[in-house]
Design goal:
By secondary structure, this protein is α/β, with parallel strands linked by helices. The protein has helices at residues 22-32, 43-46, 51-57, 71-85, 100-103, 113-137, 162-186, 201-204, 209-219, 227-238, 263-270; strands at residues 10-14, 36-40, 89-94, 140-150, 189-195, 249-252. The longest helix has 25 residues, at 113-137. The radius of gyration is 18 Å and the shape is globular. It binds 1,4-dihydronicotinamide adenine dinucleotide. The site of 1,4-dihydronicotinamide adenine dinucleotide has 26 residues, from α1, β4 and α8.
Length: 271
Amino acid sequence: MSHQLLKGKKGIIFGALDEKSIAWKTALRCHDEGAQLVLTNAPIALRMGEINTLAQQCNNAPVIPADVTSMDNLNNLFTKSMEHFNGGIDFVLHSVGMSMNIRKGNAYTDLNHEFTHKTLDISAMSLHRVLQVAYKLDAIKEWGSVVALTYIAAQRVFPDYSDMADAKALLENIARSFGYHYGTKKKVRINTISQSPTRTTAGSGVQSFDGFIDYAEKMSPLGNASAEDCANYCVSLFSDYTKMVTMQNLFHDGGFSLMGVSQAVIEQMGK
Ligand code: NAI
C-alpha cells in the first residue's frame, strides 16, 4: 500500500542491521512511499553484509559506513550523501543503540562505567553529533524531519533496561534542545518515537525480554506496536502532513504509557 507520501524526498537511514531492525522496515516503507535513500551503519555491522540486500531492494541505495561516535565518519556521510542527492536531505532516521552493560548482564547497581561512557556516546550523544554535523554543513532542507527511536524507560523504571534508560533520557532531551535551535534556524523538526518493546537484536539483548514484551502486550489496549507499525509512523513524521510537529517525545506503544493496570494483568496476577 503506497500513497507516495515521500515522493521526491531524500533521506538517510541509520541502523539497519538485519531484517528485524526497525530501521530496515522503515527503509523499505520509505522506499515504497517514493523516497530516495542513503543507508548507513557502523563499519563492523556492515561487514556482516546483510545491508546490501536491503540496498538492492531500495533501488540500489548507496551504503556509506559511519560509526556514530566519529565526527569524521559523520562529516563524510553527510558530505557524500549531499553529493549523491545533488542537494540537501529531507529526513534522517536515527535508529541506533548499544549497551555493553546490558550485553554483559551487568546490574544497574554494578555498572562498568567505561561501558556506560560508550552507551551514552553511541546511543544518545550520537544524535547530537549527527545534528551538529548536519547543522554546520547546512545539510537538512527547510521543513526537514529528524526522528530518533527511544523507550519509555526514559520516564519510568524498568530495572533490566540498565544504563540504556539513562541514555534514552539524554537522547530525548537532545531532541528537544536541538529541536529549538534547528527549528529557529531552518524550520527543521526533531522528534523521538517511544516504541513498544520489539523483537530485534538490540531489543532481545535486554534480560527477561520475553516477560517484558508479554507484560507490555497485556498492559496495552491495542497490544504492542510492531516494527512495521513503527516504520509507518516514521513515514508519517517524514511526510509534510506532520510539518508542525517538533521537539516531541511521541509514544507509539498501543496505549501502554497511559495505563495504570489492565484487566489482563490483574487476571494474570490472580492465577
Ligand atoms: P537493532 O539491533 O536492529 O539496531 C540497532 C542498530 O544500532 C544496529 O544496526 C547497530 O549496528 C547500530 N549501532 C550500534 N553501534 C553503532 C555505532 N557505533 N555506530 C553506528 N551504528 C551503531 O535493534 P532495533 O531494536 O531496531 O533498535 C533501533 C532503535 O530502536 C534503538 O535506538 C533502540 O534502542 C530503539 N528501540 C528499540 C526497542 C526494542 O524493543 N527493540 C524499543 C524502543 C526503542
